[in-house]
Design brief:
Residues 360-367 have low confidence and may be disordered. The chain has helices spanning 12-24, 27-39, 43-67, 73-115, 122-155, 163-166, 182-195, 201-205, 215-240, 243-246, 252-257, 268-299, 305-321, 325-356. The longest helix has 43 residues, at 73-115. α5 (122-155) packs across α12 (268-299), α5 packs across α13 (305-321) and α12 crosses α13 (305-321). The chain contains 14 helices and no strands. It has a single domain, classed as Amino acid/polyamine transporter I (Up-down Bundle). 73% of the residues lie in helices and 0% in strands. The protein is an all-alpha fold. It is a multi-pass membrane protein.
């Protein structure tokens, strides 16, 4: 018999902050360079298409969850795909969530070491940053939702800083529009979609959110905000750097901040990197939370907290020995494609299959 998930642990506003926060992560720091290599000056169009792809995934997830309104993600997989295929998909989700969390954490560690703390041993940073991760994953979704809400409110002002590199923008770098070609733009959209992953957390959070009226609107609004932000950062970076210069940067978004100087702050990028730590941790925690829930489901445990802590601890140990971010880029691409499959294709197929099965039940909700 399928388990039910109690609604009411998250508000719709907290869901908005969770999805947008988990989507952003570290991808925004390197996205402009990656898009320019593929789609040249039309990379911002690729970012827009990627946002539409993520929105499609959210719609599919919502349709599936509406058909099984009282079930969590892994119970839905069992209901739709059966016992064995359901467990197979659950296993893939566990691997994807855990590996993505570990890789994102490792990449940001390297950014901190290169830009701010070159003499600090990696294991010291891992211990310091894992402490808030332990606390938040142990205290569950309600605390995580409040953390996301607080984080959004105290970090939203960072967007204003994009005004400063605008003053040195060369808009002719963006012309002519469309010369990269449709194929390059579409390939770039997959590159941008990898940076927007995190929207699949909607599948985890849906059964715990209340009220559910207009819930899809809040999820799409979160994705829309991230899409606009990614497009803005991409356009500004393309206009700020020359075509040759932007591809020489590993994290061009950080380079945009180097032009910002105040009489009392000379290296603004250091301040932003420090403030960005909790944003990255939110993404990492969301991934580990999903892996912990899946592991508890496979092992038939009611309390996932200690299993999640073990997964976090394992990731911390593995991150000590993982190679640098350049060598991890290929693994990150594979994880990204897996995320697109689990976040868009699987929900779409699950919805089609569930429509043919007399399981669950379509709940009469207004959207």
């Amino acid at each position: 018999m399928s388990k039910t998930a109690p609604a009411g642990k998250l508000t719709r506003q907290q869901l908005f902050f969770l999805i947008s926060g988990i989507q952003i992560g570290v991808g925004i720091l390197s996205l402009p360079a990656g898009l320019h290599k593929v789609a040249r000056q039309d990379g911002w169009i690729s970012a827009f298409i990627a946002g539409l792809m993520a929105a499609l995934g959210l719609v599919f997830i919502h349709l599936v969850c509406r058909r099984f309104p009282g079930q969590a993600l892994y119970d839905i997989l069992d209901s739709v795909w059966g016992k064995y295929l359901g467990k197979f998909w659950t296993g893939l989700f566990i691997i994807y969530f855990w590996a993505t969390g570990a890789v994102i954490f490792r990449i940001y560690l390297e950014i901190l070491q290169i830009w701010m703390l070159p003499l600090t041993p990696r294991w010291v940073l891992i211990i310091l940053l894992m402490l808030p991760v332990f606390y938040l994953v142990f205290n569950g979704l309600t605390v995580l939702g409040r953390f996301a809400e607080m984080l959004f409110l105290i970090s939203a002002w960072i967007v204003i800083l994009l005004y400063f590199p605008l003053r040195e923008a060369h808009w002719y770098y963006l012309k002519p529009i469309g010369t990269a070609g449709l194929k390059a733009i579409l390939l770039g959209s997959f590159k941008a979609a990898l940076a927007m992953l995190g929207f699949e957390f909607y599948w985890l959070a849906y059964p715990y959110t209340s009220p559910r009226r207009r819930l899809l609107f809040w999820a799409l609004a979160a994705n829309g905000l991230v899409t606009i932000l990614y497009m803005a950062v991409t356009v500004i970076a393309f206009a700020f750097y020359s075509p040759e210069e932007i591809e020489s940067w590993r994290w061009p978004t950080l380079g945009l901040l180097k032009v910002i100087q105040f009489s009392f702050i000379e290296r603004m990028e250091y301040v932003i990197l420090a403030l960005w730590v909790p944003v990255v941790l939110l993404t990492v925690i969301g991934m580990f939370y999903g892996a912990g829930l899946g592991t508890a489901h496979l092992l038939k445990r009611k309390d996932h907290r200690y299993l999640t802590l073990l997964l976090v601890l394992l990731a911390g140990v593995v991150d000590i020995f993982l190679p640098d971010a350049d060598k991890l880029s290929k693994l990150g691409d594979y994880l990204g494609y897996a995320g697109l499959g689990l976040g868009i294709l699987l929900p779409g197929l699950s919805w089609l299959l569930a429509s043919l099965l007399p399981r669950g039940g379509m709940r009469n909700e207004r959207n």
